[in-house]
Amino acid sequence: MTSLEKKVEDLVKPIIENLGYRVYDVIYQKEGKDNYLRIFIDSDKGIDLNDCEKVNDSITDILDEKDYIKAQYYLEISSPGIERNLRRDEQFLDNINKKVEVHLYNSINNTKTVTGILKEYNEDNIVIDDIKIEKSNIASAKTLYNWEEC
Predict the structure, then answer these.
(1) Domain with CATH 2.30.30.100 in the chain
(2) 35, 129, 124, 138: which is closest to 85 by C-alpha?
(3) What is the mean pLDDT of the chain?
């Protein structure tokens, strides 16, 4: 998480929690010529469009007032989805013994994608099935939903 993302999260988290939601993640990124501030929210009941609209309406003014982001950007509020990106320690820890997919910077066993059950997570490594992966080698990670059980 960048320092800007952290500042934005610290600013909006109390407002979002007061509405009855949790902040799952905050991502600020450039795509093409446009900048996006994406705030992912969650709740035990799930998230729908009305929830996203309520959060958007509640945080827009304070984001404009604080003006942390000088460039023009698009604000997007959404659910993290059924297959969730894993970027934070607590997100990995919450998904121990669940199926994940990890994309690597450097190949392990001639592959840059490892899929399996997340067995361990610590400050230096993760273990998927019996494959130990250094955290610094993780390009991206996400949970995998078992679509066959639907």
Answers:
(1) 89-149
(2) 138
(3) 96
pLDDT, tens digit, 9 for 90 and up, residues 20-77: 999 999 999 999 999 999 999 999 999 999 999 999 999 999 999 999 999 999 999 9
Task: Determine the 3-state secondary structure of 86 from DSSP.
Answer: coil
Please report, for residues 62, 90, 99, the alpha-carbon distance to residue 84 in angstroms, rounded to integers and kept in the order given. Answer: 27, 13, 11
| pLDDT grade for 148, boundaries at 50, 70 and 90 | confident
CATH topology of domain 3-78: GMP Synthetase; Chain A, domain 3 (3.30.300)
| Parts of the chain belonging to CATH 3.30.300.70 | 3-78
pLDDT given for residue 150 in this prediction: 63
Distance CA 66, CA 96 (A): 37
Burial, 109: exposed, middle or buried (Cβ in 10 Å; 0-12, 13-18, 19+)? exposed
Class of the 89-149 domain? mainly beta
Q: DSSP state, 103?
A: E
Query: What's the whole-model pTM score?
Result: 0.89
- How many angstroms separate the CA atoms of 63 and 12, rounded? 8
